[in-house]
Amino acid sequence: MSEDDEGNDKKTQGSNRKKLKLVTFTGAAGLLGLAVSFAIFAFNSHKQKSKKKCLPGCDSVCINLSAKEILDLADEIISKSTRVHDAVASVPLNKLSYENVVLPLAELEARLLPLIQCCVVPKMISPQDNVRKASAEAELKIDAHLLSCRKREDVYRVIRIYAAKGESIAPEAKCFLQYLVRDFEHNGLNLTTTKREEVGRLKDEIDELSLRYVQNLNEDSSCLFFTEAELAGLPVEFLQSLDKTQSKEFKLTLESSHVAAILELCKIAKTRKTVAMAYGKRCGDANIPVLQKLVQSRHRLARLLGYAHFADYALDHRMSKTSTTVIRFLEGISSSLTDLAIREFSILKDLKRKEEGELPFGVEDILYYIKRVEELQFDLDFGDIRQYFPVSLVLSGIFKICQDLFGIKIEEVTETDVWYYDVQAFAVFDSGSGKLLGYFYLDMFTREGKFSHSCVVSLQNNALFSNGACQIPVALLIAQFSKDGGGEALPLGFSEVVNLFHEFGHLVQHICNRASFARFSGLRVDPDFREIPSQLLENWCYESFTLKLISGYRQDITKPLVDEVCKTLKRWRYSFSALKSLQEILYCLFDQKIYSEDDVDFSQLIRSLHPKVMLGLPVVEGTNPASCFPRAVIGSEATCYSRLWSEVFAADIFASQFGDGHPNLYMGLQFRDKVLAQGGGKEAMELLTSFLGREPSTQAYIESRTKYGL
């Protein structure tokens, strides 16, 4: 054991906490001898050997396993999963039933999810390097196994024949059955052997091309050199962080943090344009051919699977459904914001004219002049505001808002094992009945080896079993807040406060999702809907009621932010929001069109779209987003619109149901029961329509920007 490991162990050993006295919810085996609880028994043997203290009633969730325990558990998961799939495949075709085909797979999925997470989540959070490596190894093994399960012809045959019988089963069970069939058929199991092999080949090719595209960007070492005069406006600290040549020029890489600093702060127009051109040309010769081939391969895959284009395949099970709907949505928002965007653009051009004369205004000037106008119009010092947001006060404020809004009660769970000394665990109860709804962990502070982004991870999803037993949800919120040299938490910047509200929206969604099937509970909902609860909760960050609740001058809660600062923050939120939205819409349209049309000329498309969306501004000379747009390659291909979609509908919900900015318990409970609790087994658009009493609208999104905009 290294010295680092020993130090981490000491911190972890001091993390035992007293358990709450809660009702224990235990699991059950599947029917007809298909012992889905195999994996639970295997896991419990690991837990007993290492004497881990898990959350009350959640013995399956134990994230601080050793490296050996992780690898052993991964083998057990694969072994027991294989046995259940073998059992389903062996059911005689004349004796197929819901109980011996669908139910075993549903309960297996519910039981395995927390065990799988015990294996794969440590790579994100463990303080021990050997544990992170074992976790990554286990993830590869488990992923390969799960993929092989979705390619089993014998299991697919049984499921397909049972589905064709058309037995009457509960709606959520029917939806789960449809998803099972889709999982197999998206791997080509319903095709001829030749076409199935082509599906596999195309998927491998898509993975290879996507990886090559991203690697090209990651390995790009392009840099620029500027004199100090050419970098006028950049902070001294930024300049000191740059390498210098013998001729005393500063070396600027094209990493996003450097580029953002130049485009926001540099006073020299020529420098901004030079950097914008270089950034937009990255990997052009290498990546444009890669993306062309990647788009073609995705179209071929989609057509083999029965879709006209890749966008149809990607959107088939989303709220938007079709590319036509997405493009109409994006163009509708763009059209509605055009007048406001023109007014915003006029302000920027006027200021540039005053400061730089008659130089033409380019896209590369937008960020700089937005920041200049905000400096002139808003009396906001975000460095000064930071001291009003100590972590403990912000957390207690968020807890209160969530409790008052959604009818929940949050209590800390002590004396439970955690993986690092400052990790906290909490139980969530229904405030009316006192019923335990679920748990969550908070891993709030940055440290070496920890995952570097904020997110919420499902550790265990809600599920109901055939004997009436319940599995309750457990989630993990990972944040990246800082401590000072003495180990004390630093106050949060306002953007960190907003981000924390956003992530708590995911936590509430995960805990309040009461779907009976793990496939549809937790965060396993329509991807177009998944961000709506988080975007909704963000709205409270800008309300005076909330800001006074969560702020206090250096822990002195008698001195919260004054009303004027609260009002200014709301105006700042919508500052130049129309122009910012148009920039996002531009890239969303580019993404949607390359995946919904054949043989798209990327250069011609961006030259056409850019002036149309961006008020006549041409694309920066020589640049093409096709060369450096990773979201359209991996992760959000054909779905870049989804973040804006969520924001628009969250604005509608907030304005129409929670407009005064105070937590409304009645409406919050309605949202919790009619929307969040229903889970992913029901159409998200139908849930929102039922809650609102009408279809969701873009009107509130447009009006909020018009009301508070410049």
Automatic annotation (TrEMBL):
One of its GO terms (molecular function) is metal ion binding. GO terms for biological process: proteolysis. Pfam families: Peptidase_M3. The chain crosses the membrane at residues 20-43. One of its GO terms (cellular component) is cytoplasm. Gene3D superfamilies: Collagenase (Catalytic Domain), Endopeptidase. Chain P, domain 1, Neurolysin, domain 3. Its cofactor is Zn(2+). It comes from the Eukaryota. Binds 1 zinc ion. The keyword Metal-binding applies. It is found in: Cytoplasm. Its main location: cytoplasm. Residues 264-704 form the Peptidase M3A/M3B catalytic domain. Keywords: Cytoplasm, Hydrolase, Membrane, Metal-binding, Metalloprotease, Protease, Transmembrane, Transmembrane helix, Zinc. Belongs to the peptidase M3 family. PANTHER family: PEPTIDASE M3A_M3B CATALYTIC DOMAIN-CONTAINING PROTEIN, PROTEASE M3 THIMET OLIGOPEPTIDASE-RELATED. This is Peptidase M3A/M3B catalytic domain-containing protein. It comes from Brassica campestris (Field mustard).
